[in-house]
Specification:
The complex is a heterotrimer of chains A (about 160), B (about 400) and C (about 260). Chain A has about 160 residues and is mainly alpha-helical. Chain A has one domain. Chain A has 7 helices and 2 strands; from the N terminus they run H-E-H-H-H-H-H-E-H. Chain C folds into 2 domains: about 40 residues, no CATH class; about 200 residues, Alpha-Beta Plaits. In chain C, about 25% of the residues lie in helices and about 15% in strands. Chain C is built from 7 helices and 9 strands; from the N terminus they run αβαββαββαββααβαβ. A 3-stranded mixed sheet of chain C has the order 8-1-9. Classes of the chains: A mainly alpha (about 160), B mainly alpha (about 400), C alpha+beta (about 260).
């Protein structure tokens, strides 16, 4: 029993030290940095970027219960709308390739996404064909200009905590 | 009353580590089987949308039922004040905990979303028998754990009877819950009866005791300790009563069904036309599980230890056959949505459903058995669960 | 752009909360939705921010006398709408989910044959909801019995409890073939949803019923059984109907004529 306790203490201490260690700025050449692609449509998300980085899971969680149980299908905080805006231009998906919007960050933060076992990772219809997308074609030049912006590692480490 | 010395098993011999390693290997196979099922989905199993509960459930329910039964020896000692059973009680408690752990692991690792087990622990629907079972299983671990503590720690020994009584009542409720998992189902003809709860309780007495006897005999034989005939003969007598009671319940259940015209179809299926299920019922459940053990135990053969072990093995094999017939046989018989009409569809309506278990299912189930035995093997090494000797003179002194 | 506020889009007063998706999209959607809203009201629809109501009970009338032998348009329509693979194309037919199936019945004595579609009967007292350990199997306020895949653990107890064999487990990975409107996935149980995505959109009909009407059979009629003026209520008043396994007294949302 004492041995077990001792073992537990060692494991906990190691974990705590590892956690404390993550306060130091992570090495730049560690894990590949997430590629955050600017959304295809729209200028601004439903909340500030900072807020969404930290709380997207909470708002999605609240909205999903309202949708499934009560049948409320408002667009704000709806996963479908996230996908409509954030699907990649090349793959048409938020989770098909490793640089796609959702996967890129989640693999960096090592957080498993459960959404796409069930949810489609693509917007309804193909991206250009979709009625909601037709008017956003003119955003494409903006997209091309911004291409992909790399998020600073410090910023991501903050979000991950 | 004479005192009994409990002592750990030394557990340093080659034989011990071979047993330990062998069981560990099956636990590993079980883990691999789960990994396969989890990775590919249930498509790698023999289960489908017709037979939705398969071999893992046969193993899981058998182990859970046997777990509550294995506690009986301890209950007889503390609840019914039979001093002869006192030295047998700690092993009984640890074995029941181990079997319960094995059964539950198989059950939860077979879930379609076994990664979401936390959901089952945080979302409850109190109309569901399954939810009640979650609480019954957790409570079982708690109460039997406390009971075991009162047996092992002299400072809390005075609470032993109270803890033992609580554990005994709890285990009766628990097996009622397990039987009611099936008893509370309206859809299938063979379920939906209050009969299943008491039947599962009496089956648990028989299966649990059979496993207990085999583990006890093996532990004493392999460690070179003395296990007298007094203990064996007493437990053997108990097993006879339990097995006879199981047979009685099976007969009454089927006779009742045979009286109702609406059950004629499903009864004909199990008793006469069901192929593998009919064979398993008559040969497995009735002959191997009940008749043969009764003949062995009641005849002169029952005086020899080897034959008692054979009888225990037969009871366990019969128990597995019974679970197979109860769980899978009931699903194999098609649902009767339109009584009196012949049904046909792309969804296999109106036809008997076939089922071939796959290797991952088998190894997942065997993994549960292995974990139960591994825990027991380890526990008797680190805890003082087994009396140093159970020879006839020591046991005789207890009775006075 | 935000001058043209769509009816359904509630813009909060708080300045830091931003408009959704981008004004252009919202406006376009608003313009198209606005006339649509009028249509919904006629078709028993409701605004998207309003929860499903127990004043409504969605149900279906199946006229087995009109259900054509050999026709499975309802099944095909369901699989297309909801994105499940038709059993004929599945590599594992016994494990393939089937939300709706054609059932052929024959009386062995009289040789009388009957055809009908069988699916979730959307019971008022659903056994699947009673047995579900996590509450994932639930009945929506408007009578639709659904599986909440966020809390389904794949125990299949509901499949053991259903007297209609209406439910299926998804046995393998669906590899992102799902429809955006119909999430469904490995390890979870599923069944007919009465095309809940279409109802919430205000279509007022299910894919199977639409297909049956399109084929000219008119064997399926979908509607609100609580509304005495609805087409289904009127027909149910006139036509003798039965519930399958009426002995179980589950009060079904699907009623059959001609069985």
């Amino acid at each position: 029993m004492k041995r077990l306790l001792a073992l537990g203490a060692v494991v906990l201490t190691t974990a705590a030290m590892a956690w404390a260690g993550s306060d130091n700025p992570p090495k730049a050449d560690g894990a590949p940095k997430p590629v955050i692609t600017k959304a295809v449509k729209g200028e601004q998300c439903v909340e500030d970027t900072d807020y969404m980085r930290r709380n997207h899971m909470k708002v999605l969680d609240g909205h999903r219960d309202k949708t499934v149980i009560e049948g409320i299908r408002t667009k704000k905080y709806s996963l479908k709308e996230c996908i409509n805006c954030h699907a990649s231009e090349t793959t048409g998906s938020v989770a098909a390739a490793k640089d796609d919007f959702c996967v890129s960050c989640h693999s960096y933060a090592a957080v498993k996404i459960d959404c796409f076992d069930c949810h489609s990772t693509k917007p309804q219809g193909s991206i250009a064909m979709h009625s909601l997308n037709a008017e956003t074609a003119h955003y494409k030049h903006k997209l091309a200009a911004q291409a992909t912006s790399k998020v600073s590692v410090e910023e991501m480490a903050g979000v991950a905590q | 009353m004479a005192s009994i010395t409990f002592r750990e098993v030394e557990g340093s011999s080659m034989k011990y580590w071979l047993l330990f390693g062998g069981l560990g290997l099956f636990v590993l196979f079980g883990a691999l089987a789960w990994n396969t099922m989890h990775h590919y989905g249930h498509v790698v199993t023999g289960m489908d949308n017709q037979i939705v509960w398969g071999l893992p459930h046969v193993f899981a329910v058998f182990l859970i039922v046997a777990a509550s039964g294995a506690l009986n020896v301890a209950s007889i000692a503390s609840v019914f004040n039979k001093p002869m059973y006192k030295p047998l009680a700690p092993l009984s408690a640890i074995l029941s905990l181990a079997l319960m752990l094995g059964g539950l692991l198989v059950l939860v690792l077979d879930l379609g979303r076994s990664d979401r087990l936390i959901v089952a622990m945080t979302h409850f629907n109190f109309k569901s028998m399954f939810t009640w079972n979650v609480f019954l299983y957790s409570g079982f671990f708690g109460l039997v754990g406390i009971y075991l503590w009162t047996m092992l720690d002299r400072s809390v020994k005075s609470y032993s009877k109270a803890a033992g009584t609580a554990a005994f009542i709890w285990r009766l409720v628990l097996t009622t819950g397990t039987g009611s998992l099936f008893g509370f189902l309206i859809a299938r003809e063979l379920y939906g009866t209050a009969m299943l709860a008491p039947m599962f309780i009496i089956m648990s007495f028989a299966y649990g005791l059979a496993i207990y006897l085999m583990v006890l005999a093996a532990a004493y034989a392999w460690t070179g300790r003395t296990l007298g005939d007094a203990v064996m003969m007493r437990l053997k007598g108990l097993l006879v009563v339990f097995v006879a009671a199981v047979l009685y319940f099976i007969v009454v259940h089927h006779l009742t069904n045979l009286y109702f015209a609406k059950f004629h179809g499903v009864e004909a299926f199990i008793l006469r036309d069901g192929g593998i299920f009919t064979t398993l019922f008559w040969v497995g459940q009735i002959v191997i599980g009940c008749v043969a053990p009764l003949v062995i135990l009641l005849s002169g053969l029952g005086k020899q230890r080897t034959w008692i072990m054979v009888a225990c093995g037969l009871v366990i094999a019969g128990g597995m056959a019974q679970m197979y017939v109860t769980i899978i046989g009931a699903q194999a018989y098609p649902l009767d949505m339109f009584p009196g009409l012949i049904e046909k569809s792309s969804f296999y309506d109106g036809v008997v459903h076939g089922y071939t278990p796959s290797l991952p299912e088998l190894f997942l189930g065997l993994g549960g058995v292995a974990i139960a035995l591994l825990v027991t093997t380890f526990a008797i090494k680190v805890l003082r669960l087994l009396p140093a000797s159970l020879d006839d003179t020591t046991v005789a002194k207890l009775e006075h | 752009m935000s001058k043209l506020k769509p009816m359904s889009d509630q813009v909060p007063a708080s300045p830091e909360r931003r408009r959704f998706v981008g004004a252009a999209t919202a406006t376009a959607a608003g313009l198209t939705i606005a006339p649509g809203v009028m249509l919904y009201q006629v078709a028993h629809g409701r605004p998207e921010e309003q929860a499903a109501s127990s004043a409504v009970r969605w149900g279906m009338l199946v006229d087995a006398t009109k259900c054509a032998t050999g026709c499975d348009d309802c099944v095909t329509a369901c699989s297309t709408e909801n994105g499940w693979t038709p059993v004929a194309e599945s590599k594992h037919p016994k494990q393939a989910p089937q939300w709706i199936r054609k059932l052929e019945l024959q009386d062995p004595l009289t040789q009388m044959e009957t055809n009908l579609p069988m699916m979730c009967q959307h019971c008022a007292e659903p056994p699947c909801v009673d047995v579900c350990p996590t509450g994932a199997s639930f009945k929506r306020a408007d009578g639709i019995v659904l599986v909440n895949r966020h809390t389904c653990i794949g125990c299949r107890y509901c499949m053991m409890a259903c007297p209609y064999k209406a439910r299926s487990l998804v046995h393998e990975d669906l590899d992102d073939t799902q429809k955006p409107d119909v999430p469904r996935g490995i390890g979870c149980v599923e069944s007919c949803t009465l095309c809940v995505q279409k109802i919430d959109r205000g279509d007022g009909n299910t894919a199977c019923a639409e297909a049956c009407t399109a084929a000219g059979h008119n064997a399926l009629l979908f509607g609100d059984m609580n509304d005495p003026e609805s087409e289904i209520s009127k027909r149910l008043r006139e036509l003798p109907t039965k519930q399958v396994r009426a002995d179980l007294n589950l009060n079904l949302g699907v009623r059959y004529h001609g069985i």
